[in-house]
Design goal:
By secondary structure, the chain is mainly beta. It has 3 helices and 16 strands. The protein has a single domain, classed as Hypothetical Protein Pfu-838710-001 (Beta Barrel), CATH 2.40.320.10. An 8-stranded antiparallel beta barrel has the order 3-12-11-10-4-13-14-15. Strand 8 and strand 9 form a beta hairpin.
Amino acid sequence: MPQHEFLCRSTSSRCRPQNYLKLLMSTEIERKFLTLNEDWKTLATPVPYRQGYMNSDRGHQVLIHTNTDPGRTSGFLEIRSPNLPFPIEHLIPIQDAKTLHDQLCFDLRTTTNSGCTRRTGALSTKAGHTLRSRIAGDRGIFTIKTKTVGISRSEFEFEIPIVAAQQLLNTLCEQPQIDKTRRKIAYEGFIWEVDEFAGENLGLVIAEIELSHEAQSFTKPHWVGPEVTGDRRYYNSALAQTPFTRWPNV
């Protein structure tokens, strides 16, 4: 398949993107808290979120490729699975693909054929990567995260067509999935993200604040309660495996 195209397999049609997928790279430094009351509910408009997580033990593969041939270079993200009739491929900027190779991928391999050199690296939950598909309002997002060290981890986000995000959620991501609404609330120079969970995590509300460094100080709103940053049960990927309503004594 030509590298300048990607496949929307859910409609069995070939779609030509108008732009490269947008990659957002960051170091995620966040702290998590429970809430004390519902005063936050009137402070922002809720946006619906649905997200799920891939498990490489199911045979799903996420690959990052760079192709180099005379006069052209390109990069693309490829998702393979026994659950898909064909791989899903998305064009990404070559520099972003090289960054992922250098910072995150393992099992790097280089092949040459007919003057074209391809370099391929793999991403896997077996290597500690978190692989997430998300629909946030009307946006599709595919996210790759590294292991958490302290309260920090690297995060790579691609904006993808919403139809592709839906396909990943419906065919590759584990069950149960995360359903929630998110409110973004400005307070004292920071943005608090308040997630009100539904489905199998009904009854749980988490307020998160993202910092520029781990020692950065901030003021908590009056509706923010005890901190749960170090408790892995409150991470979304953990809630997808052991939902809040299944916890003992909940």
